[in-house]
Amino acid sequence: MILDAKIPEGPIEKKWTSFKNNAKLISPANKRKFKVIVVGTGLAGSSASATLAELGYEVETFCFHDSPRRAHSIAAQGGINAAKNYQNDGDSVWRLFYDTIKGGDFRAREANVYRLAEVSGTIIDECVSQGVPFAREYGGELTNRSFGGAQVSRTFYAKGQTGQQLLLGAYSALSAQIRLGRVNMHENSEMLDLVLVDGHAKGIVTRDLITGEITSHAADTVLLCTGGYSNVYYLSTNARGSNVTATWRAYKRGAAFANPCYTQIHPTCIPVAGEYQSKLTLMSESLRNDGRVWVPKAKGDTRLTQDIPEEERDYYLERKYPSYGNLAPRDIASRSAKEVCDEGRGVGPGGLGVYLDFSAAIARLGEKTIRERYGNLFEMYGNITGENAYERPMRIYPAVHYTMGGLWVDYNLMSTIPGLHVLGEANFSDHGANRLGASALMQGLSDGYFVIPNTLGEYLSTQFGKKVSTDMPEFKKTETEVRACVEKLLAVKGNVPVDEFHRQLGLIIWDECGMARSEAGLKKAIADIRALRERFWKEVAIPGTGAELNQSLERAGRVADFLEFGELMCIDALTREESCGGHFRVEHQTPEGEALRHDDKFAEVYAWMFQGQDNDPELLREPLHYEAAHLATRSYK
Amino acid sequence: MSTMNFHLRLWKQKCASDKGEFIKIHATEIPSECSFLEMLDIVNNRLTREGKEPVSFASDCREGICGTCHMVINGVPQGPGRGAACQVYMRKFENGQPITVEPFRVGAFPIVKDLVVNRSAYDRIIRSGGFISEHTGGAPDASTSLIPKPVADAAMDAAACIGCGACAAACPNSSPMLFVGAKVTHLGLLPQGQAERKSRARNMVRTMQEEGFGNCSNYYACEAVCPANVPASVIAMLNREYIRGEVSEAIGAID
Ligand SMILES: Cc1cc2nc3c(=O)[nH]c(=O)nc-3n(C[C@H](O)[C@H](O)[C@H](O)COP(=O)(O)OP(=O)(O)OC[C@H]3O[C@@H](n4cnc5c(N)ncnc54)[C@H](O)[C@@H]3O)c2cc1C
Ligand code: SF4
Ligand code: FES
Question: Which of A572, A493, A564 is nearest to A534 (CA)?
Fold first, then answer.
């Protein structure tokens, strides 16, 4: 199979316009005849559901949460980028495009990223008209803050709850369409498989998490908006329920999985405190606008912060990257934190922490301003650690946060399975090997509000007269397979709780496929994951039945998929013999310890195709052409 | 790290029609730094190892923003202190303290299982009017409407509601008016929300009544438990908006 990205002809600034001018349209009368299944109600799924329903499509939307408003997007804190240039600080579509490509370490597809930058402004317009209460100046204008990897202020925010407000905006648009009967909403419904008819994605099989009922749903096309897979590491900043099941099961039906090893480790999270811990908490990157990161210059310095004089502190980001300083991109900031901790200069329990210090900002701006900007984050920090960050520096450490990899999609957001579209964090398209802060919210909403409504016609216009129904044998067969899978889990009857396997998997992947990766380590991880998987299928304990709310069963299904997926991640990391963005192979680094890319061999997307449970996956490659932004070594010095 | 012991009484109930009962568990060696939900995880994993069914409870973000978690801890919806149940830490309890955990008891939130209740009534209230009708792609440039900072901030404070249902659970009348008032205030303060302002309040209040929730009679129990610090003044705003809605309907100014 050849990966055809279907990038429109023409110069980069004209591609999206010319695409729209020539796109296949579906008339209003015909839109009504097409049914679209949307899985997921995060920013991507809610915005797509609402917009497609407004356009007249018949939409059926699913989420495993008890309400669409609870999707993990709700937890995003810091902000959303847009090239509005309201601050008159030299921003432009081009700059946002270039920053994103460069931030992604030249491993993203140019045309998609340019389109993202191009529509970014209209996202803000849309959200304001829905009533999203973005932060404002006294005169009433919208205000901005800065995020990593940029030298302009282009990030819009709503306190420390930007994701919440954007999601509630999309949720309200979705709610309006549900009220009008244009969206049929299924909560508590987990997609467990994709149904293919003649090789096209035409439906899904779901399990009702309350009753255990397994049912099929047919449509003309399926949109997966199911978020990222950070929880393969067990401990991450993602919500507990975030999982890889939907995309993984689509992979096993023929959708190529692109760049699974590209994961983002966020530099500013509350450090791990103990084995009981169930998740990690992010301290928004926006804090790096005013917080300064440092560790003591001397190893093993256990003095209290106030006893460490200025000249004995190492503000290592400011020292190493003077032009971006504390706002260096995430991959670089995380690796630097790991480096100083590996040197024995880390602070706090186990030496796995660095300081994020607001004392200079409080002295300059006053505590009130800092409280206004970040109050809820300081409160969250205080609540979790029992420490007051207005009085002493926060302790932070990197944690898994976001996954740039995902199902491969073309310019139209369609995967390698005809009819299967993938939006938001679930696809691989816009962030290359490292995502810049405040650009995931932008991408989710861009995909849902502005891209898919324009690109869906390319597929649907080929599907007139090809209606399917759940009575077809393809649906019955998939349903039977899903039932068998659930029963297989229940039949294990071991005595080890699911969490135990998940935690162990997480440790393996964090150690060998986390911030630093090596050939030997990855090989060991693959062997360890296989062994753990075998144990899981012999020893996992799932009390209760399949015909009720059974949280152990839900988790077991997700962990079973992570146990397969983790292996693919390591295979991808092993095959990509270079360092780029968040993927740092210790064998490939510059003398200063920065990521060393090998553009001659690896300026490509790696997309993996499932070849059956017992065979190695097949590797497909999509070459990346840089015509507008020229390949260059990233420098934030 | 130090550990603690607790005498737990946890609610078990198979489904809505089951009677339900407390089970008693002596939870030993709980790390003092762990969160309340992590304590329940430990207890559940121990039950699972013993071949018993764990206690179902809902959670997702575990940082107080998604509104998934919901339970009553020692008589307080969402537990002691500010924030949601997932933001309660064991160091806030005394070693050896008895702790009772039960579900929200609100008629309009039927019990699903154990500590999990069905709060879809809140979604239906939003669907009846908690939005601004607009069409994607038709929005004017965001800078065309100026919203003074105090107005934007007040709208944000109301919009911070996480939809958890604790307000109704705390109220002797099972009134969700803090939740409804939060949305009506958020949208009613903004210029974008003016067109549907009157019908919004009227429709949401009617739906709230149809769902079987009660009205506010000024106990302020909701404000005391609200994890998002939504102020009770939103209820005053709701009452005023609702009356405007009724009057407007009477004179034919809204459908
Ligand atoms: C703590 C935190 C803070 C962040 N802050 C920022 C920020 O400031 N700026 C920024 O740009 N980005 C931020 N991000 C990243 C950003 O929030 C996410 O990438 C983005 O919200 C993902 O949106 P989504 O719509 O793709 O998926 P999600 O919001 O994760 O939604 C997934 C949806 O899919 C459903 N689902 C999943 N699997 C299934 C299944 N099998 N069956 C049925 N339904 C399913 C879920 O129910 C849910 O509705 C942050 C992330 C985290 C973790
Ligand atoms: S108003 Fe407060 S208590 Fe009520 S649902 Fe919203 S956040 Fe929960
Ligand atoms: S789990 Fe999200 S608010 Fe408690």
Answer: A564
| Residue B36, token pair as written in the block | 């309340």
In this prediction the pTM is 0.97
Q: Please, are residues B208 and B180 in contact by the beta-carbon 8 Å criterion?
A: yes
Report how far residue A117's alpha carbon sits from residue A445's, in angstroms, rounded to the nearest whole number: 12
Q: Which residue has the CA at smallest separation from atom 2 of ligand 2?
A: B226
Three state DSSP letters for A78-116: CCEECCCCCCCCCCCHHHHHHHHHHHCCCCCCHHHHHHH
Number of Cβ within a 10 Å radius of residue B48: 23
Which residues, including other chains, have CB under 8 Å from residue A302's CB and lie 6 or more apart? Answer: none
Burial of A609 (0-12, 13-18, 19+ CB in 10 A): middle
Provide mean pLDDT across the span A92-104. 97
Q: Domains of chain A: which residue ranges? A: 267-400, 473-600
Of 2.102.10.10, 1.20.58.100, 1.10.10.10, 3.30.420.360, the CATH number of A473-600 is: 1.20.58.100
Residues B135 and B229 in one domain: yes
Index of the ligand 1 atom closest to the CA of residue A237: 53
Q: Of B113, B147, B182, at which residue does a domain stop?
A: B113
Q: Which tokens belong to A159?
A: 């306190």
Is A330 tagged catalytic? yes
Residue B1 pLDDT grade (very low, low, confident, very high; cuts 50, 70, 90) = low
Same domain, B67 and B139: no
Across the A/B interface, how many CB contacts are shorter than 8 Å? 218
Digit-coded pLDDT (tens) for B54-111: 999 999 999 999 999 999 999 999 999 989 999 999 999 999 999 999 999 999 999 9
Report whether residue B84 contacts ligand 3, using a CB cutoff of 6 Å. yes
Same domain, B68 and B127: no
Q: Are residues B104 and B53 in the same domain?
A: yes
* Mean per-residue pLDDT, B143-169: 97
Q: Any idea what the CATH number is for the domain that residue B217 is in? A: 1.10.1060.10
Domain count, chain B: 2
Among candidates A400, A298, A408, which has minimal Cα distance to A347? A298
Where do the H-state alpha helices sit in A105-151?
110-130
Regarding whether B246 and B139 lie in a shared domain, the answer is: yes
Find the domain containing B12 and state its range. 3-113
Torsion of CA B130, B133, B136, B140, to 10 degrees: -110
Neighbour tally for B65: CB within 10 Å: 30
Q: Which atom of ligand 3 is nearest to the CA of A240?
A: 1
The answer on B217 and B196 residing in a single domain is yes
- pLDDT tens track for A535-570: 999 999 999 999 999 999 999 999 999 999 999 999
Q: Could you tell me if the CB of B167 is within 6 A of ligand 2?
A: yes
CA distances from B245 to A176, A466, B248 (A): 19, 48, 5
Closest by alpha carbon to A150, among A444, A419, A405, A442? Answer: A442
Of 3.30.70.920, 1.10.510.10, 3.30.1330.10, 3.90.700.10, which CATH number belongs to A267-400? Answer: 3.90.700.10
User: Cβ(B139)–Cβ(A122) under 8 Å?
Assistant: yes
Sheet strands (E) in chain B: 3-12, 21-31, 72-73, 76-77, 98-102, 111-113, 116-117
Q: Which of the residues A330, A373, A395, A555 is marked catalytic?
A: A330
In Å, how far are A518, B103, B173, B192 from B176, measured between CA atoms?
55, 17, 9, 25
Distance A513 CA to ligand 3 centre (A): 29
